[in-house]
């Protein structure tokens, strides 16, 4: 089974270009045969889930007990798993995934990106693929050459589709 995990902002307006990008991302991953995991709440997590659902795919939300009572449910999930703490949540998002795609986000998204990049860079999960989706990431000055060797940068969904379909031979 091919599994892709997406990371992204929990706050994103449904009529925004970023939300539409999330829907397109979910549709693309489902069409390519991926089971998709996401954080399971609103914003870009909802957008990706919606895209997966529209394409007839499977999207598993990985929630958190502390968030579950405060955040509205995501109606597009196929299934939801609720973790006891952030560490377990991150582990459930990572384990078994071959592809990680991060969209626009905040502290949680950065934490998730850096964790999977550290696993790849450290040789603990050398075969995973990590994609930072959005032009914003290219100008993020804290990325050194070592980090840039373990991730792919894609400006948009079309670039991402070509990268995945090409077997990740371009960056």
Number of helices: 7
> Helicity, in percent?
40-55%
The profile of the biggest β sheet is: 7 strands, parallel
- Portion of residues in beta strands equals 15-25%
CATH arch. level architecture = 3-Layer(aba) Sandwich
Number of domains: 1
**How do the helices and strands follow one another from N- to C-terminus?**
EHEHEHEHEHEHEH
Largest sheet: spatial strand order: 4-3-2-1-5-6-7
Low-confidence stretches: none
What's the overall geometry? globular
- The end-to-end span amounts to 25 Å
Overall strand count: 7
Query: What radius of gyration results from the CA coordinates?
Result: 15 Å
Query: Structural class of the helix and strand makeup?
Result: alpha/beta
- Kindly report the average pLDDT value: 93
Account of the protein in words:
The mean pLDDT is 93. This protein is of the alpha/beta class and 171 residues long. The chain has 7 helices and 7 strands. Helix 5 (107-121) links the parallel strand 5 (99-102) and strand 6. Strands 4-3-2-1-5-6-7 form a 7-stranded parallel β-sheet, with helices on both faces. The protein has one domain (2-165): Rossmann fold.
Keywords:
single chain; 171 residues; alpha/beta; Rossmann fold; 7-stranded parallel beta sheet; 7 helices; 7 strands; 20% strand; globular
Topology:
Elements: E1 2-7, H1 17-31, E2 34-38, H2 44-54, E3 59-64, H3 65-68, E4 79-83, H4 86-94, E5 99-102, H5 107-121, E6 129-133, H6 145-150, E7 152-154, H7 157-165
Parallel strand pairs: 1-2, 1-5, 2-3, 3-4, 5-6, 6-7
Helix pairs in contact: 1-2
